[in-house]
């Protein structure tokens, strides 16, 4: 969120800005946000080594590590139309059956009208395409091969 500030990001991401100026800008911004000393140290280290542009990637990677530590399993479900609450509850119940003991489902739903119907499920390392679009594509391929 710090790099979303246009003034700060222009200073921090400019390769011609001196390291000391970048560190001061980062320290000032972090002081306003009341960040923990560990976060301040990390951001200073990134600024000192010219690596602040990697902050979003680092935050994302750390989030994945913490999710794995907590036993969270990310599941993305894509449907052609938004699911109602009852469907989401039913889906969660079905997906929880695929999890090992101690794992926690972290469900993310997305909509993509181009799949026409059905759903695409991505859970952990597994990918299942049950969309109408993929079924039509398979049938079209079979029909073309037989002609």
TrEMBL record:
One of its GO terms (molecular function) is proton-transporting ATP synthase activity, rotational mechanism. The keyword Membrane applies. It holds the Pfam family OSCP. InterPro entries: ATP_synth_OSCP/delta_N_sf, ATPase_OSCP/d_CS, ATPase_OSCP/dsu. The keyword Membrane applies. Keywords: ATP synthesis, Hydrogen ion transport, Ion transport, Membrane, Transport. Transmembrane segments: none annotated. One of its GO terms (cellular component) is membrane. Its main location: membrane. It is found in: Membrane. It comes from the Eukaryota. Belongs to the ATPase delta chain family. Component of the ATP synthase complex composed at least of ATP5F1A/subunit alpha, ATP5F1B/subunit beta, ATP5MC1/subunit c (homooctomer), MT-ATP6/subunit a, MT-ATP8/subunit 8, ATP5ME/subunit e, ATP5MF/subunit f, ATP5MG/subunit g, ATP5MK/subunit k, ATP5MJ/subunit j, ATP5F1C/subunit gamma, ATP5F1D/subunit delta, ATP5F1E/subunit epsilon, ATP5PF/subunit F6, ATP5PB/subunit b, ATP5PD/subunit d, ATP5PO/subunit OSCP. This is ATP synthase peripheral stalk subunit OSCP, mitochondrial. It comes from Antrostomus carolinensis (Chuck-will's-widow).
